[in-house]
Automatic annotation (TrEMBL):
InterPro entries: Carbonic_anhydrase, Carbonic_anhydrase_sf. It comes from the Bacteria. Keywords: Metal-binding, Zinc. It catalyses: hydrogencarbonate + H(+) = CO2 + H2O. Its cofactor is Zn(2+). It is an enzyme of class 4 (lyase). It comes from Gordoniibacillus kamchatkensis. This is carbonic anhydrase. Gene3D superfamilies: Carbonic anhydrase.
Length: 193
C-alpha cells in the first residue's frame, strides 16, 4: 500500500468515527501566541507537550531551523498576519539543539540535488537569475545566535509593533527542556520607555 493510500484510508475512518471532535477550535489562538519553530520530526509532539499546548492554543509556523531569513518572506508574512488578523500578542522563536541546519553545506545540498536529477543547467539558471544559492542553502554554526538573529529580524520589522514581546528559546529535542535565550518582555518594556 502506498503512503498516500494509507493516509487516505486512515482519514476516512478518522472522519467517519468523528475523531476530529476532540480537536475542534476556531482560528484564533487561545494563548494568543505565534511560534516559529523547526520542522524537525522530533518536535512534532514533543514541543507542544513540553509547553503545555493543546489544539487551538497557538499559531505554529515551521521552517528549517526556525530561521526567519528574509524580512519580506513567507515566514515574516505569517507572523504579521498572526499579529494583526489572528490576535497573537506574543511571538516565540524556538530553535533546537542538534539541528540539521547546523553546519549545513550548500555544496553538499546541491550535490544531492544533482544526484536526484537536478541538472547543472538548472543550477546555473538560478545563479544567472540572481539567486545566491550559497547564501540561500547555508545553515548556521550556532543555534543560539541563529535564534537571536531571527528574533531581531522580527522585532525590527517595520510592520511589527514594538509592544509585542518576541522571545527566543532553544528546546532540547530529546527531553523537551526549554532554555530562554532572549526575554521579549524586557525588550518590549524598554521599547515603551
Amino acid at each position: 500500500m502506498s503512503l498516500i493510500s494509507e493516509i487516505m484510508e486512515y482519514n476516512k475512518s478518522f472522519v467517519e468515527n468523528k475523531e476530529y471532535e476532540q480537536f475542534l477550535t476556531d482560528k484564533f489562538p487561545d494563548k494568543k501566541m505565534v511560534i516559529i519553530t523547526c520542522m524537525d520530526t522530533r518536535l512534532t509532539e514533543l514541543l507542544p507537550r513540553a509547553m503545555n499546548l493543546h489544539n487551538g492554543d497557538a499559531k505554529v509556523i515551521k521552517s528549517a531551523g526556525a530561521v526567519v531569513s528574509h524580512p519580506f518572506g513567507s515566514i515574516m508574512r505569517s507572523v504579521v498576519v498572526a499579529v494583526y488578523q489572528l490576535e497573537a500578542d506574543e511571538v516565540l522563536v524556538i530553535g533546537h539543539h542538534d539541528c540539521g541546519m547546523t553546519g549545513l553545506n550548500p555544496d553538499q545540498v546541491l550535490d544531492r540535488a544533482k544526484a536526484r536529477g537536478v541538472t547543472d543547467e538548472m543550477v546555473n539558471l538560478l545563479k544567472h537569475a540572481g539567486i545566491n544559492l550559497n547564501s540561500w542553502l547555508t545553515g548556521f554554526d550556532n543555534v543560539e545566535d541563529s535564534v537571536k538573529q531571527s528574533v531581531n529580524m522580527i522585532r525590527n520589522h517595520p510592520l511589527m509593533p514594538k509592544k509585542i514581546p518576541v522571545h527566543g528559546l532553544i528546546v532540547h529535542p530529546q527531553t523537551g527542556k526549554l532554555d530562554l535565550v532572549d526575554d521579549g518582555y524586557a525588550y518590549a518594556a524598554a521599547s515603551r520607555e
